[in-house]
Amino acid sequence: MSREGQKEDRRTRILDAAEALIRQTGATDFPMTVLAERAALSGPTPYNLFGSKGAILYALLNRSLDDLFNDVEHGAHSDDPVEVVVEATLTAADAFAADPQYYRPLYGFLLGVQDPVHRPAFMERCLTYWKQALAPLATAAPQPLAVPIEQIGRLLVINYVGALDQWCKSELDDVQFPSQVLYGTLVQLLAVATNERQRNALTARMRNLAPRLPKHFAIRVRAAAAA
Fold first, then answer.
1. Out of 120, 136, 180, 218, which could bridge 81 as a Cys pair, Cβ 3.0 to 4.6 Å?
2. If we measure between CA atoms, which residue out of 136, 181, 192 comes closest to residue 157?
3. Mean pLDDT throughout 19-31?
């Protein structure tokens, strides 16, 4: 194996070990010494390869985005451009809700720690995810959308991050989270629907989703925490 290949192998081992520790502990506050030991590497190696623990966690965050991009690329694609956005919404929300033991603490780190270096680039990647989902809608529209794709994408990021924050704090459970994210997406799409058929379909879906949404901001205490 080349020197670069060996370096990449060590990076992967560190990330895999970090993911395993998050799953095991339900938190991101594990010591770097423990991480190095789990990866079967010397103590300084994680610092040498990533620079900081925050960089390691952002590498995991970016890896989760890689998975989402891959899922969307290889998933089913509707001929309806509105449904393409809905599919992208559910792909992201369902993936997180299906693995709360990992994604809750990992994205809780994103939401709770300022990082002027890694966070802006990560958020730009999040925006790219939504802009790609919105692109067919802009292409199919008979005239320019009332709101630019860039701004719709930003609103979808904000909608997702807001629901994510509630989910990470257990204000939304694993069923409510995808419903809340999708409801917000439908509201945004309603503002740029190009015909009556689209508007009717969106409002009907919103009515169906409404009963699944929380009515209060009360914290839902998980059984494991209560025990």
1. 136
2. 181
3. 97
Query: Looking at 170-174, 180-184, 192-196, which range is the least confident one?
Result: 192-196
Instruction: Give the position of tokens 């989910």.
Output: 167
In the block, residue with structure tokens 């998050």: 22
51-74: b or e for each residue (b if 16 or more CB lie within 10 Å)?
eebbebbbbbbeebeeebeeebee
Using DSSP, state whether 144 is helix, strand or coil: coil
d(CA 39, CA 49): 13
206 neighbors 186 (Cβ within 8 angstroms): yes
This prediction's pTM:
0.90
CA angle at 177 for the pair 176 and 180, rounded to the nearest 5°: 80
Closest CA to 214 of 185, 182, 181, 176: 176
Within 13 Å of residue 180, how many CA atoms lie on the same side as its CB? 23
Report how far residue 172's alpha carbon sits from residue 217's, in angstroms, rounded to the nearest whole number: 8
Q: What is the DSSP letter of 43?
A: T
CA distance 70 to 63: 11
94 class by beta-carbon count within 10 Å (0-12 exposed, 13-18 middle, 19+ buried): middle
What would the mean pLDDT of 154-177 be, rounded to a whole number? 96
Task: Scan for tokens 């060996």, then name that residue.
Answer: 6
